[in-house]
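User: Continuing from earlier, I have the next pair ready.

Assistant: Great, send them over.

User: Here they are, in order.

Assistant: Folding the first of the pair now:
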Amino acid sequence: MNILDLFYPKKCLECGKSGGYICDKCVKKVRPSYFSCPYCNKPSFEGKTHPNCKKKQKLDQLISLWEYEGVIRKAILALKYKFVLDISNELSNVIYKKIQQKKIDFGKNVILTSVPLHKKRQFFRGFNQSEEIAKRLSEHLDWKYLPDILVRSKNTEFQTNLTKKEREENIKNAFKFNTKYQLKDKNKIVVIFDDVWTTGSTIKEMTKVLKKKGIKTVIALTITKR
């Protein structure tokens, strides 16, 4: 037990039950997200991009695990804005269980990465919430984890209050491929992890950079979708 638990006991963020921030009962109340094409948002088999929506340098598949609600939403917000870092452990565990339940399997030829923060924003926050969860998730899934395969070259505005068009413009040319990596195997599947899928502008922009480097398959894996 962490000594802080004696003074600040962990309670479920939804129902207040002692023992942890995310209890199984409250997780079961959160609606699963349906599979949809990441471009037209219409139902799609396993979240794969529809052939009519598919063009060069586009995302191949979107898997979001839950709707943005309940204890999962509260856990994301507490981690992101209240800096409760311990929540990343619990989130990675429930995400892994959900992936097993959905029988999601991309094989072992996978590189997992997360949405990078600009160094100024990461310095202010002290950590990257998506990176903390993805790091633990990669250990569960036995995937190679490269958090810095892309670097953020532009300190963008927060996307939260922007329209879809403004988000796309805000994030344009915000990422660069990290030259310390040489991806010789272009058949690697790159999975980009993030906490919330709204319009997907950030992940779509990252996908363009990866596809330009010759990566054939890029998949988005997010905790929630709204």
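And the other member of the pair:
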Amino acid sequence: MNSEADEGMSRRSFLRTGLGAAAAGAAVTGTAAAQEEGGGGGGTEVIVGPGGSNVFDPETAYVKPGGTVTWVWDSGGHNVVPESQPSGASWEGHEPIEDAGFEYSHTFETEGTYEYVCVPHASLGMEGVVEVTPNPPENEGYQSILPDSAKTIGVAAMGSLVSVLGMAYFFMRYGGDYGDYEE
């Protein structure tokens, strides 16, 4: 007995469906990445007091002229106060003490070295540096501009793509139409 409900998926149908799903996954990944990139002269993020420690992470952040540094408070009781900066620069920092979850950003236009501290914890060595240079060292002080959610979508899409293509290979190689079975 052979009814429409018992008919299996042909290899071609499976391959078409699999490739369509893989293409959709790749499109979603590219869209998520493009939405998160944004524009501008580049930037970096500095974590203030990561895990309750009295440090800036990274201690030295590199940014090109016109780039933005964003300080993100991971623990409370900290501030960002400039100690020295290049002549002609007018960075004022963020002197009020803030708690976890607060963010402060500044766009640096003037090339040079900007040194800053967390005033309440300066005696404990909570100091940081922003280097504004047109040629920053590669992979030093820069953090990904993609959030973890976009990275997760990318990994999931690639995993789906690999598994669909693996199954397509398996069915193309070993078959998928097993004929009519009668019980």
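Worth noting for the second one:
The helical segments are 11-37, 148-174. The chain has two domains: 8-37+147-174, 43-132.
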